[in-house]
Specification:
By secondary structure, the chain is an alpha/beta fold. Helix content is about 40%, strand content about 15%. The protein is built from five helices and four strands. The chain has a four-stranded parallel sheet with strand order 2-1-3-4, sandwiched between helices.
Length: about 130
C-alpha cells in the first residue's frame, strides 16, 4: 500500500476535456491528482487520443501514473484499446498498485454521478480504511 500522503497520478481518457478537468475539485484533499487528460476534440488534432499518443503520454509522465480512467463517452473498442496500451505500460515499467476504471463498460449506471463512482473505486483501492 502506498504511503498515505503519496500522490496518486491519474490519466483520464474522454471524448472532451471539460468533464475530466472538473475532477480536480473532487480530488481536493485526497491523494489523487490528474496527471494528464487525453481526449478526442482538443487542438491541435495531432495530439488528441490515439493508442500511440496515449503510449507517449504514459511513457513520459513522472511520477508514473497509477490509474487510468476511460470515460463513459468512449466506445467499448476504444476503451479496450486504451486499456491494452495501459497494460503494456504497466508491464514495461513494473508499475505497482495500479487501477483501471472503465466507465465505458460500467456494469451499472451510477445514476449519472460518475464522479462519485470514480471516488468510490479510488477510495476502495487506495484508502480502504476510510477517508482521512
Amino acid at each position: 500500500m502506498p504511503h498515505p500522503t503519496a500522490s496518486i497520478p491519474i490519466v483520464a481518457i474522454g471524448r472532451t476535456r471539460p468533464v475530466a478537468e472538473g475532477a480536480d475539485a473532487a480530488f481536493a484533499g485526497t491523494p489523487y491528482r490528474t496527471a494528464a487528460i487525453v481526449d478526442f476534440t482538443s487542438e491541435p488534432a495531432a495530439y488528441t487520443y490515439s493508442a500511440h499518443n496515449l503510449g507517449v503520454v504514459l511513457q513520459n509522465l513522472h511520477p508514473r501514473p497509477r490509474v487510468v480512467i476511460c470515460g463513459t463517452g468512449l466506445s467499448h473498442e476504444t476503451a479496450d484499446e486504451a486499456i491494452e496500451v495501459w497494460d503494456t505500460y504497466v508491464k514495461s515499467w513494473g508499475v505497482t498498485e495500479t487501477l483501471v476504471i472503465n466507465l465505458a463498460r460500467a456494469a451499472q449506471d451510477a445514476g449519472g454521478d460518475w464522479m462519485a463512482e470514480i471516488m468510490r473505486r479510488l477510495d476502495e483501492k487506495y484508502r480502504p480504511q476510510g477517508h482521512a
